[in-house]
Amino acid sequence: MSNLRILYAAGPGDIVGTFRYWLHGKDDPRVPDVAYSRQFLDVCQQVGADGWIISANPRRDLVEAGAIRAENRPITFDGRSGLIFHVGRALYTLGLIRSAIRFRADVVVAAHGVHWFLLSLLPLFGIKVVPAIHNALWLALVPPRFTERVLLFLARPLFASWSLAILAHPGTCARQVSELASGRSRPIVPFLPFYREYAFTGVPQRGARRPPFRVMFAGRIEADKGVFDLLEVARQLTERHRLDIEFDICGAGSCLERLRREATAAGLAERFRCHGYLVEARALREIFGACHVVVVPTRSDYTEGFNAVVAEAILAGRPVITSRLCPAIDLVRDAAVEIPPNDVAACRDAILLLCDQDPIYEIKRNACSQLKAQFFDSRNSWGEGLSRILANTAKV
Length: 396
Hints:
Oligomer: single chain
CATH topology of the largest domain: Rossmann fold
Shape: globular
Strand order of the largest sheet: 3-4-2-1-5-6-7-8
CATH class of the largest domain: Alpha Beta
């Protein structure tokens, strides 16, 4: 009997690099969690499967070892908008389908860069499909535009009938899958980001005694992730002579240099520090260790997923400020301060609340220790969810 053959269309990370670390029995040190690609490789090893993992990383690369092939394959027209964007996604999806057929895949796990409706072609070739939903399928507060409505309508059969099962972050992602399939979706298997218990070892239980009170943001530096809202918060705090509050902005993106310029122009460069992308997870942990609170100010024009930074804040023992646009808030509410989406004033006031009200800050901080276990539990992981789905492939 031949081995199970699985193709995984992963996110934009450097899959080839992660694969090389895995070959040496190591986690990828560039990310604080256990990378989803690492989890996929572990599953292939556990079930004796042949695997082909393809990322959308812009640096094209390919490496093979044993029964595993890892490839960085850029998405055509990535970063463009309008019709060109959709053409690029369609070409990328068709390329994945062609690869799956050539690979004689039994299962395709698709997480990123695809037009979902095109994956409905795979069952025609006897290939089972497992969508892995990391981000919302549509904006939570804004009705889908015409093109989005058409694409969602075309994708409905995949989620209602043609999938083997669906991996999805709990909350918004899982709920939208169910809504799209009118409550009759294929089985939805929830998952959480997964961390080793030593991931945040050494991070002090709270930030250094104040002042300054340090606010941290970690993520892509884009307008829709709320970074310019944070800059406006910093301006308003300066106007109120709150020079005891500082910001650490970690991440890369198309707006990084603009954010730096605007922070400098506002005279905030020393208290609104843009660190850029921190290559090693250790450097990110150091920022977590120095901060007092983590802010996730995603705006309503971004299809937010679970946002692992929320989990990382909890593991570091830091309260979180975010809105209902971030599905993770439902799992960490005791350690979070919820604010309305897109509300700069509410974000400012939440920071002041945690800065100035020690009893409230301590309640939120202490709640973190009660919430950590769910992110250390491998039974909640993406890899465990995929393993359960694959265990049923022979029955389908």
